[in-house]
UniProtKB/TrEMBL annotation:
Heme b binds at H42, H86, H136, H172. It is found in: Cell inner membrane; Membrane. The chain crosses the membrane at residues 30-51, 71-91, 118-140, 160-182, 203-224. This is Fumarate reductase cytochrome b subunit. It comes from the Bacteria. Its main location: membrane. One of its GO terms (cellular component) is plasma membrane. Keywords: Cell membrane, Electron transport, Heme, Iron, Membrane, Metal-binding, Transmembrane, Transmembrane helix, Transport, Tricarboxylic acid cycle. It comes from Campylobacter hominis (strain ATCC BAA-381 / DSM 21671 / CCUG 45161 / LMG 19568 / NCTC 13146 / CH001A). GO terms for biological process: tricarboxylic acid cycle. One of its GO terms (molecular function) is metal ion binding.
Length: 226
């Protein structure tokens, strides 16, 4: 109970500044970074189909040595746990009720501030990913051995689901990576210089995720065509 009060008020029971909010922020950032890096690897993994089915099967064999497909199930389970922890920590910053939601929405409209609007998109995509990503990860946790033929069948049956999931993931992850940079990386220089550096980093981050998104779309089309 004390921990929850400290997390809400930001002070401990002896009226000292609590370390809990800072620790929660740190672990939210760490888990978010892990998930973002995993998604980059995952997108490159599924994108290997652009080289051919043999390339995809080769990546699967590398990830599952000696045909031990349970490795994929275990990795998916670990990612699911990290995903749940990240979501739980992120919920602290969600509007606590509908009135707070309307207040933030009005604030966003009045401010017309880019980073505030980005957080708005991050909030909604994070909320939707709780359902979409959870369903996908759980299917992998309890799924069979991965193969090109199995993946072809999944893409044929669920291509719209994967397309929507891809949009949510890329939007959420790209904004999240940018916010990680703003939160944790120190920028020296005058105000104008700091803004210019921040804009440059923002463009680079969104460009990288944009390229990954385009490659993933092309890979999805390849999967469906197979």
């Amino acid at each position: 109970m004390v921990d929850r009060i400290e997390g809400f008020l930001g002070v401990s029971s002896d009226v000292k500044k609590s370390k809990i909010p800072a620790l929660q922020d740190r672990w939210q950032s760490i888990t978010g970074l892990i998930l973002a890096l995993f998604m980059v690897c995952h997108m490159l993994f599924t994108g290997s189909i652009l080289i051919g089915k043999d390339a995809y099967e080769g990546v699967v064999s590398f990830a599952e040595p000696f045909g031990i497909h349970q490795i994929t199930n275990i990795v998916a389970f670990v990612i699911l746990i990290i995903f749940m922890i990240h979501g739980f920590l992120a919920m602290r910053k969600f509007p606590s009720n509908y009135k707070a939601y309307l207040a933030f929405k009005a604030h966003k409209i009045r401010m017309k501030h880019c980073d505030t609007t980005l957080w708005w998109f991050q909030f909604w995509t994070g909320f939707l990913l709780f359902f979409f990503a959870s369903a996908h990860i759980i299917a992998i946790v309890f799924g069979d051995k991965i193969s090109a033929d199995l993946s072809i069948t999944r893409f044929a049956d669920l291509h719209l689901f994967y397309f929507v999931l891809l949009i949510f993931v890329v939007t959420h992850a790209s904004i999240g990576c940018y916010r990680l940079y703003v939160k944790w990386i120190s920028i020296d220089g005058k105000e104008d210089e700091r803004k210019a550096k921040r804009q440059t980093v923002k463009k680079i981050i969104f460009a990288v995720w944009g390229i990954l998104f385009i490659l993933s779309i092309i890979a999805d089309i390849k999967w469906i065509s197979l």
